[in-house]
Amino acid sequence: MRMADDVIEGPTFALTKEWVDPSPGIELVEVHYVWGPLGEPPDWEGDQTAVATPLDAGPPPRRAAPLELPRFVDGATDYLLHYFFFVAGG
Question: Which of 21, 23, 36, 42 is the most exposed place for a label (fewest CB within 10 A)?
Answer without folding.
Answer: 23
